[in-house]
Structure formats: C-alpha cells, structure tokens
Amino acid sequence: NTPFDHTLHSSFTTSLQTASSLMSSHEGCAPILRRRLCAVLLVALITTSAAKPKKYPQHHTSKAHWKKEGECSRGACAGFHPDENEDCVSKCVSDACYQEVYAEEPLEPGEIDRHRQTRFNACVRREQDEEAKRIAEERKAARASR
Predict the structure, then answer these.
(1) Residues 67, 10: Cα–Cα separation, whole Å
(2) Which of 15, 37, 100, 145 matches a 20 to 30 Å C-alpha distance to 137?
(3) Which of 72, 124, 115 is nearest to 96 (CA)?
(4) What's the CA gap between 102 and 87, in Å, rounded?
C-alpha cells in the first residue's frame, strides 16, 4: 500500500459515510439512491483497482556497493557537499570502473548522468561478482587440498 492508496481509501470511506447518512435521512429515496451509489462505487473500485502504479527505473546496487559509497562519503569525500560528491564517490568506490565510465568526461559538481551511472553500477556489479567468484574458487581449492 502506498500513501496514495491510504488517501484514496480514506476519501472513499468518508464519501460512503456521507452518502449513507443522506440516504437514511430520505427514506423514500433510499432504494434508488442506494442502487445508484452502489453502481458508482463499483465503477470507482474497478477503475482504481485496474490502474497500475507508475514504474520508475530501478537502479539496483548491491549492499556492498552502497556501503562502500557510504564509507567514501564519510571518509575520502567528506569535504564535498553531499549533492556534489558523486564524482569523488564513484572514483573511491571503484577506480577501474571510474576510469572506464567517467575519466574522459568527469561529472561536474551536482551533475547527475543516469546513463553513465547505470554503466558504472553495472561495472561495479561485475567487479563484485568476479571477486565473489574468485573467493569461492579459492575456498573450493583450499577444501580440496585438505
């Protein structure tokens, strides 16, 4: 549930309570109003349940990646304003990936380049996957030599 869903539910409940009190005060009209209200509410429920939430692009990064970003922000890049430290943090997280993606045209302070950020994150993910694979192979070799 999103805050929008909660607000929609609250508005719907309030409208329903108001309509119920109106119908109870006009007993002669109640059956007709009740049918119309039910029809309107049914249409509203169908419409809102069929609406799909807007999907935003997902930039997935691993826990190790964002932890490293946090360490860099608090350490090597602490002298930069948080809104302007992306270039420093990227270089700190992975110099090799920084060289591959940003070196030719470094980010300006405050600049956000989603395309290059996605490429950088993919590069870091590859590095982490390769490192995990290397460690697993070393452990496997160590167990085999026992």
Answers:
(1) 39
(2) 100
(3) 124
(4) 8
Which stretches of the chain are DSSP H helices? 3-25, 30-50, 63-74, 86-93, 95-101, 114-144
d(C-alpha 138, C-alpha 36), whole Å: 71
Cβ-contact 19, 37 below 8 angstroms: yes
pLDDT tens for residues 14-61?
A: 655 655 565 555 555 566 667 777 677 767 766 655 555 555 445 556
pLDDT tens digit sequence for 54-80: 554 455 567 777 888 899 999 999 998
Residues near 34 by beta carbon (within 8 Å), at least 6 away in sequence: 23
pLDDT higher at 99 or 44: 99
Single out the residue of 89, 92, 141, 130 nearest to residue 111, CA to CA: 89
- Angle (deg, nearest 10), helices 63-74 and 114-144: 110
- The token duo for 18 is 């108001």
